[in-house]
Design goal:
This protein has two helices and 19 strands. Strands 9, 10, 11, 12, 13, 14, 15, 16, 17, 18 and 19 form an eleven-stranded antiparallel β-sheet that branches. It has an eight-stranded antiparallel β-barrel with strand order 1-2-3-4-5-6-7-8. The protein is mainly beta and about 280 residues long. The longest helix has 10 residues. The N terminus is likely disordered. It has two domains: about 130 residues, Lipocalin, CATH 2.40.128; about 150 residues.
């Protein structure tokens, strides 16, 4: 994302779209801070979601340094103070602010930042919105009975567009040659990328399809690897969880040998990719 597009996001206040977390709603009367709030200036943008169940999430984006982070935990009102208790994954501890609510404006004051005025918005921002990071993660699978973890991962992900492609190489050591085994899984949905089971369907117009590919030696000029084309029986990709900054899934498939043209294999040679696990995060 260019600086111009980032400033456009700041000016728009990230209003619109479905909620990525927190609770969408108009602030309650009598200084109830429940809602989703956003502070912006030239250097930073902070989005704070205070849910009705007492949980919160906050996304802090630093524009000059192109850094973004998310923290979460629980919140409580103690007199005229707003108390944020961070969970263990966010570092723990508490943050306390003097606060007030005036219509669609939340005022938060502490010694570190002084007074900041937050406007009511419709959704909690995601670090993906700013484009400062990238999708990273691992694939693990059992290939013909051998457990492999693929750490060299490239991810093309479009949650709104319904597509995910993960290309990975198995690198057991930093100096291993590039001919290490390659594993590719790809799914495609007609709408947004939602949790569900995607099966191998090799025909035009199929919904929620999956493609799998495994090559034991990508440097071999005489063999094209195994894929789910002309697959029987079918495999599946189970998308367990999709969040703005994380994706989890499992998969398995039988790969048949690839070849020039459309000549199907006789079924005597194949590879089994089983117990596949995908864990991706945006950072």
């Amino acid at each position: 994302m260019t600086r111009l597009s980032v400033l456009t996001v700041l000016a728009a206040g990230l209003v619109g779209g479905g909620a990525c977390g927190g609770t969408v709603g108009v602030p309650m009367p009598d200084d109830d801070p429940t809602g989703i709030w956003q502070f912006s200036d030239a250097d930073s943008e902070v989005t704070l979601g205070l849910a009705t169940d007492g949980t919160f999430e906050r996304v802090d984006a630093s524009i000059p340094s192109m850094q973004c982070g998310r923290v979460s935990g629980s919140w409580a009102q103690a007199g005229d103070e707003l108390v944020l208790s961070l969970d263990a994954t966010s570092g723990g501890g508490q943050e306390r602010f003097a606060f007030s609510v005036d219509g669609a404006v939340l005022s938060l004051t502490d010694a570190a930042s002084g007074t900041r005025l937050y406007s009511s918005v419709s959704r909690v921002a995601s670090c993906v919105d700013y484009g400062f990071g990238s999708w990273q993660g691992t694939l693990a699978a059992s290939v013909d009975g051998e457990a492999l973890t693929f750490n060299d991962v490239e991810v093309d992900l479009d949650i709104d567009g319904g597509s995910l492609r993960i290309t990975s190489l198995w690198r057991p050591c930093p100096t291993c040659p590039p001919e290490d085994p390659e594993l590719i899984v790809e799914i495609d949905a007609p709408g947004e990328l939602d949790p569900g089971t995607y099966t191998v369907q090799n025909f035009a117009g199929a919904e929620m399809t999956m493609f799998g590919f495994f090559h034991p030696d990508p440097g071999d000029p005489d063999f094209e690897g195994f894929s789910t084309e002309r697959l029987s029986p079918p495999g599946e990709f189970v998308l367990a969880a999709v969040a703005p900054e994380s994706v989890s899934a499992t998969f398995s498939f039988r790969g048949n040998p690839r070849s020039d043209g459309n000549t199907p294999s006789d079924g005597s040679t194949f590879t089994l990719v089983m117990e596949g696990v995908v864990e991706l995060t945006y950072r």
